[in-house]
Amino acid sequence: MSVHTEVKVVTTHVLSEMKHRGEKISMLTAYDFSMASLVDAAGIDVILVGDSASNVMAGHTTTLPITLDNMIYHAASVVRGSSRALIVVDLPFGTYQGNSKEALNSSIRIMKETGAHAVKLEGGSEVEESIIRILSAGIPVMGHLGLTPQSIHKFGTYVVRAKEEEEAEKLKKDAILLEELGCFAIVLEKIPATLAAEVAKSVRIPIIGIGAGNQVDGQVLVLHDMLGINQEFSPRFLRRYHNLAEEIKGAVRGYITDVKNVDFPNEREQY
Ligand code: KIV
Q1: How many CB atoms lie within 10 A of CB 247?
Q2: In this predicted structure, what is the pLDDT of residue 59?
């Protein structure tokens, strides 16, 4: 029997065991109670309260504007909606870079005020001090390398990262560093599949890919993208499992028509 079906509650240890047994890890984002309840009930292993909330929930063009208070609000809602998945919360831009004390305080607020199980942050050696300090408080940390959206103004574009030798070498070193520091998993975003496969083989902690091929230990997608709610975003790596935007618009149009025609509410729908 798979680890996935056996466990009642997914922990960082369970994820490690899954990698060890070659069982793939499923991860999706969620930002609110209702969606988290559905995603958790469907049996997802990890829910990421991603700072992509800045895009899909708040309508910003980047992940930079979302605040720690915003993330805490989303994460607490997700925690109330789930009972099985491991819940990981993104540390938002400006709450951990260059100041390990602030990184620790931000992480403690997330853990205390939301009930989530771990934090995620972007970067390698640049954020080493912050990772050490967060881990010293017993807070599990997930890394994130490759395309790191909080650095979009440095990159200037969302194209595939680490295609060149120098960047690929730094990424490989960073992955090993994150493992040595004690991170329990790493997200690799939008990098060549061969590089991601190499990294997944070189470390014992799970590597979760998004646009990083299938030779890694698990996959993550943004819920609104894979459900087809957010239709503007269509990178090659995205598989849409539904066209919810059309279904929602169809339902709303039906409601509007019924209201205009005084067909809703009917006699059975009133007191
Ligand atoms: O914020 C987010 O949704 C993420 C995923 C894309 C990995 O970091």
Answers
A1: 13
A2: 96
- The reported pLDDT for the residue numbered 2 is 72
Cα(50) to ligand 1 centroid in Å equals: 5
- Look up the CATH architecture of domain 3-240: Alpha-Beta Barrel (3.20)
Identify the residue whose C-alpha is closest to ligand 1 atom 5.
Answer: 50
Is pLDDT at 131 greater than 80 in this prediction? yes
Say if ligand 1 is within 6 A of residue 50 CB: yes
Rounded to an integer, what distance in angstroms lies between the CA atom of residue 145 and that of residue 172? 9
List all residues 6 or more positions away from 128 whose beta carbon is below 8 Å from its beta carbon: 177, 181
Find tokens 């199980």 and name the residue: 117
pLDDT in tens, 226-271: 999 988 889 999 999 999 999 999 999 999 999 999 999 999 999 9
| Helices 33-41 + 68-81 axis angle, to 10 | 40
pTM higher than 0.90, yes or no? yes
Domain-wise residue ranges, the chain: 3-240, 243-271
23 Cβ neighbours under 8 A, 6+ residues apart? 2, 3, 4
Cα–ligand 1 centroid distance for 227 (angstroms): 15
If phi > 0 it is left, if psi is from -120 to 50 it is alpha, else beta; for residue 221 that is: beta
Q: With a 6 A CB cut-off, is 225 part of the ligand 1 pocket?
A: no
